[in-house]
Amino acid sequence: MSLASALDLGLALAALPLLAACLYLGLLTLCSGRRAPAAAAPPPTSRFEVLVPAHDEEDGIGRTVASILTGDYPAPLRRVTVVADNCSDATAARARAAGARVLVRTDPAHGKGRALAFGLGQVLEERFADAVVVVDADTVASPGLLRAYAARLERGAAAVQADNGVLNPGDSWRTRLMAIALGSFHRLRFGARERLGLSCGLRGNGMCLSRRLLLAVPHTASSRAEDLEYGLLVAEAGHRVHYAAEGHVLSAMVSGEAPARSQRRRWEEGRGELARLHGRRLLALALARRDLRLLDVALDLLVPPLATLAAWAAGGLGVSALVSIAWHPVPVALLLWAGCVALLAAYVLRGWVLSETGWRGLQDLLVHAPAYAVWKVALRWRAPAPGAGGWVRTPRE
Fold first, then answer.
1. What is the pTM of this model?
2. What 3-state DSSP class applies to 175?
3. Angle between helices 189-196 and 3-30 (to 10 degrees)
4. From CA 387, how far away is CA 280, in angstroms rounded?
5. What is the pLDDT of residues 276-286, one digit of tens each?
6. Domains delineated in the chain
7. E strands within 214-301?
8. Alpha carbon distance 188, 202 (integer Å)
9. 203: burial class by Cβ within 10 Å (0-12, 13-18, 19+)?
10. For residue 329, what are the contacts with CB-CB under 8 A and spacing of at least 6?
């Protein structure tokens, strides 16, 4: 075998893991078409407790509570409870003024995971709600959010995840890229899974958990990505999470580099930790059970972040192109790497379409996305962020 052929073969083999990940994303892209609107649902009967864990959120908690209480859902069937956790400001008072019930918790050593567990325990004891909805304290809920949940719960769903979006996409190129990223991760991936009958997973903000699910699978997650961790427990127990595309929770994203870095590191490191601890185990369990839903959950956890995939694809394409130019081998490797790039491009462009950020969003993709991807990959080489424990609050703008 010539040196050129050996190099081409080596590069082709190196492309195969990436190609598998890209084919997985490509399948989801193909299946992400919008579904026909659901038929009109009968008057709802489900009772909801909307739980809002909050730490020093006096400026925005009133808006969050108001968006839920003014929604299109019968008042006797819903209640809002704010867990004012380790607050040093007027969060509790402003939440009460907005119409919420407030539970005050003081435990500086433990943060959001414990606050959520505290609130869930209280709700389950009281037996008011058929389901608990978790909404972040910097969020605006769409008017039809609870009706979207009720329509699925009353058809037998045990868990539902709403669509997550960006409240302030027009603030900067960074917030528009976040809107496109959420369009890819939620509307594309979750929409595809809903069409395929798979489980979309839980993402904390906007998740709805039925009482029977919480009793069957207690919420014991405490990692930095406690929402994702609990979603893995739910999937392992055999429950499907449905996606409510018409129900939205919109969060304000930071536009500055420093707070965005802190926030992104926590998300990426929390997800990476769960992938190391549970990814291979869930993959083996899914294969042993022949469980397609659990297999998808494992694959979703094991597929690296998009920025990592893009850097890998760009590097491989560049090296294989240089080898082809210098030695003119049969360009098998070049074709494989180019296929990876094409699949990733289709995935990102579909996310842009679903994000509804328009031509300004596409311009930001072309101008800022390469540097943003490098920035995200570089975060992985920095010292780890503080582990689970007290609240690590992203500054609000």
1. 0.88
2. helix
3. 70
4. 23
5. 989 999 999 99
6. 3-32+299-379 (no CATH), 48-277 (3.90.550.10)
7. 241-251
8. 15
9. buried
10. 2, 4, 5, 7, 8, 323
